[in-house]
C-alpha cells in the first residue's frame, strides 16, 4: 500500500503517476493524484475524468518504465 507521505509528494508536485492494476499495460491508469483516504486514491486523468482506485495498486511516476507483473 502506498504511504500518505508518497501520495502527498505526488499531489504537491503535480507529477503524473502510472497506476499498475494488473499484468495488462492497457489497463494502467495515468494521471495526477487529487485526494485519498484510508482505502482509495482519486486520480485525475488527462481528459479531466476522475477515477477512484484502490491504494493497494502499484503507484509509480509515469516517466519511469512500467513494472511488469508476472502472474
Q: How large is the count of helical segments? A: 1
Q: How many beta-strand runs? A: 5
Contiguous low-pLDDT stretches (5 residues minimum) are none
Strand content: 35-45%
Radius of gyration over all CA atoms, rounded:
11 Å
Strand order of the largest sheet: 4-3-2-1-5
The fold-level CATH name is SH3 type barrels
The major beta sheet can be summarized as: 5 strands, antiparallel
Helix percent band: 10-25%
Order of helices and strands: HEEEEE
Distance between the termini: 19 Å
Structural domains: how many: 1
> Structural class, judged by helices and strands?
mainly beta
- Report the top-level CATH class: Mainly Beta
Word description of this protein:
With 71 residues, this protein is mostly beta strands. 14% of the residues lie in helices and 37% in strands. The radius of gyration is 11 Å and the shape is globular.
Which properties best describe this structure?
71 residues; 5-stranded antiparallel sheet; 1 helix; SH3 type barrels; mainly beta
Brief digest:
This protein has 71 residues and is mostly beta strands. It contains one helix and five strands. The relative contact order is 0.28.
Amino acid at each position: 500500500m502506498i504511504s500518505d507521505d508518497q501520495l502527498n509528494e505526488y499531489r504537491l508536485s503535480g507529477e503524473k503517476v502510472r497506476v499498475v492494476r494488473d499484468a495488462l499495460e492497457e489497463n494502467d491508469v495515468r494521471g495526477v493524484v487529487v485526494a485519498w483516504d484510508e482505502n482509495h486514491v482519486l486520480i485525475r486523468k488527462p481528459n479531466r475524468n476522475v477515477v477512484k482506485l484502490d491504494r493497494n495498486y502499484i503507484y509509480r511516476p509515469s516517466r519511469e518504465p512500467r513494472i511488469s507483473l508476472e502472474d
